[in-house]
Amino acid sequence: MLGNEALARGAFEADVKVISSYPGTPSTEVTETAAKYDDIHVEWAPNEKVGVEVAMGASLGGARSLSCMKHVGLNVAADPFFTAAYTGVTAGMVILVADDNGCHSSQNEQDSRFYGRSAGVPVLEPSDPQECKDYIKKAYEISEKYDTVVLVRSNTRISHSRGVVTLGEKKEKEKICYVKNVQKYVAMPAMAKKLHIAQEMRMKKIAEDCNVSELNRIEKGDGKIGIITSGICYQYVKEALPDADILKMGMIYPLPKKMIKDFSESVEKLYIIEEGEPFFEEQIRAMGIIPAGGKDMFTVQGEYSANMIRKAFGRPVAPVTEVTDAPGRPPLLCAGCPHRGVFHVLSKLKKTVMGDIGCYTLAALPPTASIDSCLCMGASITMAHGFEKAVGTSKDTVAVLGDSTFFHSGITGLINMNYNGSKGTVIILDNRITGMTGHQDNPSTGRNAKGEEAPAVDIAALCRAIGVKNIVEIDPFEVKELEAVIKEETEREELSVIITKRPCALIVKQPDIPYAVNEDCKNCKQCMKIGCPAIEERNGRPYIVPERCVGCGLCEKVCPFGAIKAQKTSEEKEAAK
User: Fold this and answer.
1) Is 277 helix (H, G, I), strand (E, B) or coil?
2) Which of 292, 468, 558, 563 is the 20 to 30 A CA-CA neighbour of 153?
3) Is the full-model pTM beyond 0.90?
4) What is the pLDDT of residue 492?
5) How many whole angstroms separate alpha carbon 267 and alpha carbon 144?
């Protein structure tokens, strides 16, 4: 199983009844897999805050619940998460967060272990797919035993690696009847003070018990080197240092202080190996235990490897075959991507573009190179508003974000623009899917997480309800009309929204009739400025690779000399004969 599939299986075996998540790589497949289990209500929430609140409501109602997200999603969910850490739970509640060491698909690296420590909840971290399944089940036992939300931390390598998993049966759990308890669940100041004390006592008890927890174990070696580690780093240590003693921690917060002290005294030299920040190291040093090495031997940035550890300990490095003559393959928008026309026009008009999180962030790269900023989900709208207030005009600035991102956290920014007198222009790229994370449905697609029909939000109607008067819907491949619309709307002295409507090229069958450059080509290379992966330069002239072309026709529309035409189909060729 994939680690994420195993996490979903663990939720099924634990008899989880409600899962509410927002897709975010590397966590997405947990919810997608869980949606295949008929016994679980699974939903895509508009954002992670909503997901955690839904899960908390389900727990209050007596059903085990789960909310999944990536590391930056936990920032969005922090508001309910921190208070849920005070109130505790009725039925077990788990938050699954997947960190992205190395920034494979994220705008930053974060260490979510600090969230557990700051909020005051236990944190578990599996190191392989089998533990993914087992730790989720254990998390629900801990949640209900200690009356606490539990954070389970994964990362890219754990979530996206495969391993053999021994499956178990679902253990049916009797639903807990709801009992009103204002002192526990109404976090007013008077109650919150008492809840904080209860939380403190709860964590002290968990800290004491984790010294004998089966989640933490010691693996004996020759006694010369002792390694404290967890998660994927455990696998690297096992490979790189097979003779080392290892304290492998599955509960990574709170730390088992007595266990760590006893382990440190049993080895000649103690080392701490952990990706990310010195989370273990700082706490262990605070215990008065001084390791022989930790972050001074490694780095807080990126991923570790067995070879990195071998090198740090002076061990022979395993040979790695490196391909040095392979051409570079920068990430690109797909052939036929509906976003390409928008960014071609914005680049041509030399607009300042406040970008957002999505496939379209790739438009920051050449040849369009049209995005000026990318901060976080929904920030395009609010940053454009702030930029307008700073420079005194909105005429050369637009905000661009996708439909799913708009629902996630763009709506409030648009309300803010309208309320605070913005004259800016917002472009919502409606490709009818959540594209970047693998084509999950969202509130505008008409389908829910299980693929069932669901009400579809009309984005234009929603914008009108917010108070936006100037709204234009347009096909982004009608580039001449789109250019005229962008010029007109950015010149307005009022707030405006442009909604570009064309489905993602990967979810709707394209014409699949390849285009070709004919003898009328003037070699102006306008077609190459759209950055289509099907168009390359051969012998100094544009050439459309037929195997890559999906027949979207955008290149034909940007060619000023009519030198690009669709090739004839096999049926047309036969008819011509």
Assistant:
1) coil
2) 292
3) yes
4) 95
5) 36
